[in-house]
Sequence to fold (599 residues):
Amino acid sequence: MKNFARLLTTSSAVALGVLAAGAAAQDSSTANLIFAVDESGSMAGEHNFLSGFASDVDTALSGSGFSTVNFGLTGYGGGGSGNLGRTIDVDGALFGDAASFATATGNLVTSGSDEDGWAAIDFVLNTYTIPSGESTTIILVTDEPRIPEVPALSYGDVEADLDAAGVNLISVVDARFEDATGIEAIATDGATAYVQDGTGFTTAPFGSVTGADGSTEADYIDLAFSTPNGCAATLNELRDGGDAATAFSAVLLECLTIAASGGGGTQTVPLNQYRDTTKTVMDNHRAQVRRMAYGIGVDFASEGAQVSMSTRDQSTAFDMGGLRGYFAVTGYQGEIDAFENNAGLDYDGRGFILGIDRTGDHAAGHLRYGMSLGFDSIGADLEASQGSLDTESTTLQVYAAYRQAEGPYALGHMQFALHDFTNTRIDGGTSHVGTPDGRSFGTEVETGYGMTPIALGDDGPGAAMLQMTPFAAIGYERHAVDGYTESNNGVTVADFDEDAVYARAGLRSEFDVTHAGTRFYGALEISATDRLDGETRAVPLNGGLDSAVITSGDDRRVDVRFETGAEINENSRVFLNLDGGYSDHAEQYAATAGFEMRF
Fold:
């Protein structure tokens, strides 16, 4: 009942200190960063950027566990004897601290035109001493494709030399990147795209390289991807200035931190089970309470003429007028297949719903408004023995329905839910347990039209009636999970959330008959739901050094619902509802039985 007590009472940009705190302890306490910088005439802005950027790098890496951060600077393409590479002293030596590096960038020139980045990398590897076991990263900064001043150098040669030296490469180049949905990105490691979010960034699965200048992709971007923790970034964002430049700085700092720390990339840490189970709870509660809000059945006027449900007097409007209470128990189960980045899972759950509402005349029709409270417990087992998730949920829903005399109706609701999770992830025989909290919110507006009832046989009072009701709805939902750290030296997962807008359309057929003084009713409803803005996202792990990817759920789903019930007397009735939901990768079923009574 912890949720009940609480109920009554973007991913964000990651701060540098959080990034640093999440890094694992380093095998070495020294990080060597060697900048190989194009000295052609168009690079003055990048030279100025590097002078101010060094102190941010030093702060992040020092907090990440490095006791020493060494900066080296090589210029190339400036013409003359140093065209293939020339060292620029940092406080009189090849390496120095951040402040000395900032000063040394003032010695870069902008007089060149023929730039061979492979030659510059080769120069660095053969000039600087790179101690075994120390973290070393080369940062290539250029706005031109490679001009092969040393034709004998091949891609394979440079790749092999970087690998032999244990050096990572970050290429800052003239190119454009997109994530998997086509949104422009600042940088990528080949798996994760870093997308601007104001002055910070979010992560998403990588899509493609677009607009790379000449051979830049093949020569510099792919070469960076070939190193264990390499990264490629576009300097066009830096040149755009403003928020884009600030976000570029944050992303480049992230790439440097990952490269130096030996982390990065994506991990197989299933997270879609949180959304899939909380969505199941919300969907089931909404479906059951929607039926209570809408009502069921058709009736005759006292003179025996056929009329729609909306024209009955208050005692029968929406089935039951005045103050009403209801109680329902529900059970559900389902299977979601593994696809893309999502783990497959089998689940089953149970719960109950308590509700109260009031129905009365309003303007030219009838108005019903009420609230419901639900408690659910759901257990999910992930396929391939990846683990399990147990969820305890408390859901509050408020709703209102309005029907005019001619047959149209409108129905709206808002849902709020709190969740307690116990997630167990199995990795190599070790169980890692996380116990985060979560929240869900949903809102929906539905409208439809109850068509003129059709008499099945005799059209006298109590005869069998059939009514067809087409309807459509649009809704929004959001599911959020708090960040947590797993037990047994597992991963640290950042806060994450997912939201979606959806539309639904369907047809409802209702059957109503009175036999031996007892009213029986039933309904069959078929609807199709289309998710309008599904997205795939990466969730930061270990302070942003790694990530786990969640693919959005199926965009389209078909639901089939059958309802039946009987009146016990004029003030009470019992009901049974059966549900089935079907999409490309999921099947789910639910059964609900309940009782309602007018006070």
Summary: DSSP finds ten helices and 31 strands in the chain.
